[in-house]
Specification:
Blueprint: H1 3-12, H2 32-57, H3 59-64, H4 66-88, E1 92-94, E2 97-99, H5 102-110, H6 113-121, H7 129-132, H8 147-160, H9 164-194, H10 214-229, H11 241-279, H12 283-292, H13 297-312, H14 319-322, H15 328-343, H16 354-361, E3 365-369, E4 374-376, E5 384-390, E6 393-396, E7 403-407, E8 412-413, E9 433-436, E10 440-446, H17 447-454, H18 458-474, H19 480-536, H20 542-550, H21 560-568
Antiparallel strand pairs: 1-2, 3-10, 4-9, 5-8, 5-10, 6-7, 6-9
Helix pairs in contact: 2-4, 2-8, 2-9, 8-9, 9-10, 9-11, 15-16
Length: about 575
C-alpha cells in the first residue's frame, strides 16, 4: 500500500475518542432515585397549583413581586423539561424484567397520553407576554397538566412511609386547603368583577382603612370561603345572580367535600383498627367471655394486664399471620434478620447449616408471660424448648419461692426434651420449675416443628444429637448402659429390617419370574388359538354340505357314518 493511500485512509477514518461519552443511566421506576425525583417534582407542581391562581386573582401580588415570579416560573419550567428527560430514561417492566433499552423506552413513552400532557404543559405560552404584558399569569394555566406527577409522588410516598395513615390525613388536609385556596381566589376575582363594596356579600371597598392591604384581602377571602365550604353559616346573603350561582356551586362542592372527608377518615380509622387487630390479639372477645363465664376478678385482672402490656410495649404474638402473604423466601429473610441472632445463641444450634437455621427461624413462636406465671413445671412433658428474648425467669423450688438460679436474655432451656437422645435418664420430662419474674418475652420451638425440619437435614440431626449427648454427660443425666442397650436394640431392629427387606426382594424376584412365565404361557395359548382359527377357516361351511346331500351326491365333507350307511344299503 502506498503512502498516499495510507494518508487517505487515515483522513477518512478519524481515530475514536479516547474516552467514550457517558449517557444518562436508566432509572428503575421502583428505585430510590426515581422516588426522590418524584418528590422533587412536587414543588414545581404545587407552586403552579397554589401561586399561579393566586397571582391571577390578586393583581397586587402579581405586580409587587414580578421579578421573583418570573424567576420561579422559569425554574419550574426547567424542572418540567428535566422531568421529560427523566421520563425518556425511566425503564418499565416487561414480563417481570426491567427494560433498559432506551429506544424501546422512548418509543413506549411517546405513544402514551403522559407524553402529550407533558408537551402541552411546556407549550411556550409566555410568548404572548410580548403582546399582553407580563402581568397575565393566566397564560401559564397549561402548567396544571403536570398534576398527575403530584398524585404519583403521593402514591409512592404512601407505600414507603412508616406512617401511611398519618400521611393520608395530611394529604387530605392539603387537598382541602387547595380547594379553599382556589375558592377564595375565585371569590376575590368575582368581587372585583362585580365591584368591591357594592353589597354586603362581595369584598369590602379597599378604600376603607385596613382593607387595602394584600394580606387582609387574602385572609378575608380565605375566611369567607371556609365559612361557605364548611356550611357553618353566618355568611352575608347573596344579592345578585352571579353571587347566587357562586353560593350554589360552593354548596354542592361542600357536600362532595364532606362525603370525601367522611369516606377518607372512615377508611383511615378502619385501616388503623385492622392494623391493630392484625398486630395484637382482640381482647374484647376474651373480656366478654370471662364476664359471661364469671371468671374471678383476680384472674380477669391478670388477663387484662397481659393485653395492656402487649399494646403499650408494641409486642406481637402472631408474627406468622402478619407475614403470611409474603413469598416464602422473602418471609424467611425477614424472619432471619429479626430472630437469627437469638436462635444462634442456642448451643445445640451453633455451627449448623445456614439453611437449617432459616427453616427453624420460621418455626419460632413468640410468647409473652406475665409476672409470677409458670412457663413449665417439674415433671411436665416437654414438647417445646424456649429461648429468652427479653425479661428474667427464675428456677424455683416446688414451693415457688426459693430461687435456685435466674435466667436472663439470650439464655434457653428445654432443648434436651425435644431431641430424642438415647440414654436420657429424665426422658422428655421437665426437671425444674421455671417461673417468670416480670413480663418475659420468649421464643418457643415445638418438638414437631424441629422434627419436621430435621427430616430434611439428617446430618444436622446427628450433630445436634451429639451435642445434646455431651450436655447430658456434663449434667450426669446420660445412662451409658441404657444408651448402649438402646443402640444394640436399634441395631438388632435394623438387622431384622434388613433381613425382611432381603426376603421381600426375594419374593418380588420370584413373583416377577412367575409373572413372566404366566405372560409367556398366555402368549403361547394365544398363538395356538390363532392357528386353530386359521385351520377351521379351510373347512367347508354347513350350508354347502346340506346342498350336496339334497342333490344325492355325497360331498367331500360327508361324515364316515353316512358313508357306512350308504355302503350297507342294498
Amino acid at each position: 500500500m502506498s503512502q498516499d493511500t495510507k494518508v487517505k485512509t487515515t483522513e477518512s477514518n478519524p481515530p475514536a475518542p479516547s474516552k467514550a461519552r457517558k449517557s444518562l443511566p436508566v432509572l428503575d421506576p421502583s428505585g430510590d432515585y426515581y422516588y426522590w425525583w418524584l418528590n422533587t417534582m412536587v414543588f414545581p407542581v404545587m407552586y403552579n397549583l397554589i401561586i399561579l391562581v393566586c397571582r391571577a386573582c390578586f393583581p397586587d401580588l402579581q405586580h409587587g413581586y414580578l421579578v421573583a415570579w418570573l424567576v420561579l416560573d422559569y425554574m419550574s419550567d426547567l424542572l418540567y423539561l428535566l422531568d421529560i428527560v427523566v421520563r425518556f430514561h425511566t425503564g418499565f417492566l416487561e414480563q417481570g424484567i426491567l427494560v433498559v433499552d432506551k429506544g424501546r423506552i422512548s418509543s413506549r413513552y411517546v405513544r402514551t397520553w403522559s407524553f402529550l400532557l407533558d408537551l402541552a404543559s411546556l407549550m411556550p405560552t409566555d410568548v404572548v407576554y410580548l403582546r399582553l404584558g407580563p402581568h397575565t399569569p393566566t397564560l401559564r394555566l397549561n402548567r396544571f397538566l403536570r398534576v398527575p406527577r403530584l398524585f404519583e409522588a403521593f402514591d409512592r410516598t404512601e407505600t414507603r412511609t412508616a406512617y401511611p395513615n398519618a400521611f393520608r390525613i395530611a394529604k387530605l388536609m392539603l387537598y382541602i386547603f387547595v380547594v379553599i385556596h382556589w375558592n377564595s381566589c375565585l371569590y376575590f376575582a368575582l368581587s372585583r368583577y362585580l365591584g368591591f363594596g357594592r353589597d354586603v356579600w362581595v369584598y369590602p371597598d379597599p378604600a376603607q382603612p385596613g382593607f387595602e392591604r394584600l394580606r387582609r384581602q387574602y385572609l378575608y377571602s380565605f375566611y369567607f370561603s371556609t365559612l361557605i365550604l364548611t356550611t357553618v353559616g353566618d355568611t352575608p346573603p347573596p344579592a345578585r345572580e352571579e353571587e347566587y350561582l357562586f353560593m350554589v356551586g360552593d354548596f354542592l362542592l361542600a357536600v362532595m367535600g364532606f362525603a370525601t372527608i367522611m369516606g377518607s377518615m372512615s377508611s383511615v380509622i378502619y385501616n388503623m383498627n385492622t392494623a391493630d387487630a392484625a398486630f395484637y390479639p382482640d381482647h374484647a372477645q376474651v373480656k366478654k367471655y370471662m364476664k359471661l363465664q364469671h371468671v374471678n376478678r383476680k384472674l380477669e385482672r391478670r388477663v387484662i394486664d397481659w393485653y395492656q402490656h402487649l399494646q403499650i410495649n408494641k409486642k406481637m404474638t402472631n408474627e406468622v399471620a402478619i407475614l403470611q402473604h409474603l413469598p416464602e423466601r422473602l418471609r424467611a429473610e425477614v424472619a432471619v434478620s429479626v430472630h437469627l441472632s437469638t436462635l444462634s445463641r442456642v448451643q445445640i444450634f451453633q455451627n449448623c447449616e445456614a439453611s437449617l437455621l432459616e427453616e427453624l427461624v420460621l418455626k419460632l413462636q413468640p410468647q409473652t408471660y406475665s409476672p409470677g406465671e409458670y412457663v413449665c413445671r417439674k415433671g411436665d412433658i416437654g414438647r417445646e424448648m424456649y429461648i429468652i428474648r427479653e425479661g428474667q425467669l427464675a428456677v424455683v423450688a416446688d414451693d415457688g419461692i426459693t430461687q435456685y438460679a435466674v435466667l436472663g436474655a439470650g439464655l434457653y432451656f428445654g432443648e434436651i426434651s425435644i431431641i430424642n437422645i438415647k440414654g436420657n435418664m429424665s426422658g422428655n420430662r421437665r426437671t425444674a420449675n421455671i417461673k417468670s419474674l416480670g413480663y418475659s418475652d420468649l421464643f418457643c420451638l415445638s418438638k414437631e416443628d424441629l422434627k419436621e425440619v430435621l427430616s430434611e437435614y439428617p446430618q444436622a440431626q446427628t450433630v445436634m444429637e451429639e451435642k445434646g449427648r455431651e450436655i447430658l454427660l456434663k449434667m450426669n443425666k446420660l445412662d451409658v448402659n441404657a444408651e448402649a442397650a438402646e443402640i444394640a436394640l436399634q441395631e438388632a431392629t435394623e438387622s431384622r429390617l434388613r433381613g425382611l427387606d432381603q426376603q421381600l426382594d426375594d419374593l418380588q424376584t420370584k413373583f416377577a419370574r412367575l409373572l413372566a412365565e404366566l405372560e409367556s404361557s398366555a402368549l403361547k395359548i394365544a398363538y395356538r388359538v390363532e392357528r386353530l382359527e386359521w385351520q377351521t377357516r379351510e373347512w367347508p361351511m354347513p350350508e354347502d354340505v346340506a346342498e350336496a346331500d339334497d342333490e344325492g351326491e355325497p360331498g367331500e365333507g360327508t361324515s364316515k357314518d353316512e358313508e357306512g350307511r350308504a355302503e350297507g344299503t342294498p
